[in-house]
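Quick check before the chapter quiz. The format below is the same one you will see on the exam, so make sure you can read both the input and the output lines.
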Amino acid sequence: MSTNSDATARAWVDVDLAALIANAKTIAALSRSRLLPMIKANGYGLGAGPVARALESLDPWGYGVATPAEGGQLRTAGIARPIIVFTPFQPNQSEQYRQHDLRAVIGDLDGLRSWLATNGGPFHLEVDTGMARSGIRWDDAPAWDSARGLLSGAGSWEGAFTHFHSADSNSAATDQQWQRFQLLLGSLPHRPPTIHAANSAAALRGTAYAADLVRPGIFLYGGGAGGQSPLTVARLRGRVIGLRTVRAGDSVSYDATWTAERETVIATVSLGYADGVPRSLSNRGLVEIGGRLAPIVGRVTMDMLMVRPPEAVAVGDVATVYGGLVSLDTAAETARTISFELLTSLGARVDRRYADPT
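Here is the expected output.
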């Protein structure tokens, strides 16, 4: 059932929690590892609380977020499992971590010293094996010499991990990162209880990089990864809110980038870039209305977009930007971006409607 049956809503995203759970089960089955689902950025735009509560049925180890505030929101939503904040810990954040019982990611020596000095609790050490974003570089010998001394007596050292940069596109690079990670782990004082590296793409490749936990993200939410096709989770929808007939030579939308070659019916749809429809879909995207595809004409505006419907439509008809005849990945490719960005760009005013996972 939907949490909102308002037939007059201007824009919404239908979220199929049963499909999300099925996608998570696929990852668990292929990787044979326990799940650490990534639900940062408000559950990839779909609602962190409802997503986490749905995934609870699979008994995940815990959840991954990007900020202490996101972790606090999950606690408020009733989530009691471990929560790892994957942005590296900053010493001035200690109180936020303690307040919400959050696991820290430690990515440098200063952070490690500060966390241990304040008895911050369980933490996960990040190893940079090639992403060059955060973590202690795998071959930084002086840094690891210092880290070993600090880790040898650290009873709160719960995990170590790395981040693959090209698991979906470069097997050789992924193998190299994994080998670097294993080499570094073998040089540490002892093995922490939880080792993890695999994102969606790596986890879907089987057990090779599964370790103790896998960290699925985009595949859970309906984005393709690892050569696998997920079930559709998100369907972004609005309504036809106006119809007009333009004459040959008339332009549509800002900057007059589209001009009618003949008399044409134009439908205005209640979705725009403030709702999560990229402006880059102007004059190139497709919208589903009544089971058929309608091309977007003219610029996508902040609150509305215009399409040329292939047949008669009516005010109030539902228009689907992705999740129907146009998949999330296809819409992202057409917009020259990635599915992650489409989902996390969903506007706050877009109603999230959840289908009962049972």
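If your answer matched, good. The longest strand covers residues 234-246.
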